[in-house]
Amino acid sequence: QYLCGLVKGFGSNLHLKTRETFAREIFKHGNELAPDDKHILNTYYDQKGARLFQYQLQVKDCKYNDFKRTPPLIDTCDTQRVNDILTPWIERSEPFMLVGPEGCGKTLILMTLLRKKEKSTDCDSALIPLL
Question: What is the pTM of this model?
Fold first, then answer.
């Protein structure tokens, strides 16, 4: 868990290739083997299984009614990683900023996570109508 946290924390501002090299070095120094070295950034620590796992594309059956209000969020490795990063902050009602270029899916990811949360959440008034 600590090694994955180091990769996410210290590697977050590195370019992709440099981040991959950094992750390999971190796992090497920690005497851990990633499940798939070719996709090392898709590695995460599962507390229930107490071991390293690899994010996998999750394909679910969707019906038209499932996304009348918003399009579905496909559980790619990237969206699962973002979900794992944001969920603890949302659950603890901690402030955070979600930044990215227009059209990259910030609102979709945030709305999907907020709908999963049972209690109310304070957020910018521009987002309230979307909930």
Answer: 0.65
Kindly give the confidence (pLDDT) of every residue in the chain, 131 residues in length, as a single tens digit, with 9 standing for 90 and above. Answer: 889 889 988 888 899 899 999 999 999 999 998 888 899 988 988 888 888 888 887 766 666 565 666 677 778 888 888 888 888 888 888 888 888 899 888 888 888 888 877 545 555 545 544 44
Half-sphere exposure of 64 toward its Cβ, with a 13 Å CA cutoff?
0
CA atoms of 19 and 7, how far apart (whole Å): 8
Residue 98: name the closest of 127, 69, 73 by CA: 127
The burial class, CB within 10 Å (0-12 / 13-18 / 19+), for 27 is buried
Asked if 86 contacts 105 with a C-beta cutoff of 8 angstroms, the reply is no
Whole-angstrom Cα distance, residue 42 to residue 81?
8
CB proximity list for 95: less than 8 A, separation 6 or greater? 89
